[in-house]
Design a protein that fits this description.
Order of helices and strands: HHEHEHHEHEHHEHHHHH
Structural class: alpha/beta
Radius of gyration: 25 Å
Distance between the termini: 69 Å
Number of helices: 13
Strand order of the largest sheet: 2-3-4-1-5
Shape: elongated
């Protein structure tokens, strides 16, 4: 589309979580380092929380890519599972077949998982279960997950769990029914939104990874409007940047300016809603000022 026009090898603002585009923003870098260190320690639950679109899945994939051969990982991207479906998913990730009906018996399946975990541990390997979108785990499955972490030998736990989810996960963990699980969380990380001063670096990083090597592509005014409209949410930044590039390309421009970002915002509902809300507040503020002014005039006239 616009790749050749701007000297790009690929789309720099794709929504697919590509680890090559991981941006070492403060909270994301801290979370990555914490995850890697905690996994090496090998005990307890690790919790990562972030708003929608802040790059949780990209962080998870980056961690998976950086772990050594001594770490066996099981990744579950969709945790809307029953207790036994969770065990089946874990067994499948560990390479255990559960095709036969007898293999799906909860007690039998748990014993097979235990034996496999012991075998892997005897080979000097640590086993980590990463669960994305963890805020969606049913309550009964949360308890089954806790019980899975009870699997141990005399010296060490056999399974470590990383929970990655939206802020609703914290609300779930406040419930009395899951207090035992919450007590096992040894490390917690929170992914923050990208601030205005770092958005320029974020955009430049993704452009460079995609092969761009020219002069500044997004003007300062374009970046400022991009920061305001996206509120620092990486996913929205990507959407707006992609559409702004399309707009500039369509107009035959070699640089993205504020008008192209405005075009992108007009075509992106999630970016419009906040701006529209701000405009409404401004209108209300203006109306109040006018009414107050009229009131003062009236009072002055009456007196």
């Amino acid at each position: 589309m616009y790749h050749q026009h701007f000297g790009l090898n690929e789309s720099p603002f794709s929504l697919t979580p590509d680890t090559e585009y991981f941006f070492n923003y403060a909270s994301h870098c801290d979370a990555l380092n914490t995850l890697l260190a905690a996994i090496k320690m090998g005990e307890g639950f690790i919790k990562v929380v972030g708003e929608v679109g802040t790059g949780k899945t990209l962080l998870c994939r980056s961690v998976l890519k950086m772990l050594g051969d001594d770490i066996v990982t099981a990744y579950i991207p969709n945790p809307m599972l029953t207790s036994n479906e969770l065990r089946e998913a874990l067994a499948d990730e560990l390479g255990l077949s559960v095709e036969q009906d007898q293999d799906r018996d909860p007690h039998r399946l748990l014993k097979r998982i235990y034996r496999e975990l012991v075998r892997l541990r005897s080979e000097g390997k640590k086993i980590v279960l990463l669960i994305d979108e963890a805020q969606a785990i049913p309550n009964s499955t949360l308890e089954a997950l806790r019980l899975l972490t009870n699997l141990e030998t005399e010296k060490y736990k056999l399974l470590q769990v990383v929970l990655i989810g939206q802020p609703e996960l914290d609300e779930r963990l406040k419930r009395q029914s899951v207090r035992q699980l919450k007590q096992r969380i040894t490390f917690s990380c929170e992914l923050e939104l990208i601030d205005r001063n770092s958005i320029d670096g974020y955009v430049l990083h993704r452009l460079n990874v995609a092969g761009y090597s020219g002069a500044r592509l997004f003007s300062s005014r374009a970046i400022s409007l991009l920061a305001k409209a996206s509120r620092g949410v990486p996913r929205i930044i990507n959407v707006l940047c992609h559409k702004a590039l399309m707009s500039a390309y369509g107009q035959g421009q070699a640089r993205v300016d504020i008008k192209h970002v405005r075009d992108a915002i007009k075509d992106t509902e999630v970016a419009q809603s906040r701006r529209h809300h701000n405009w409404q507040l401004a209108d209300i503020g203006l109306s109040v000022c006018v009414l107050i002014g009229l009131g003062l005039v009236y009072v002055g006239t009456a007196s």
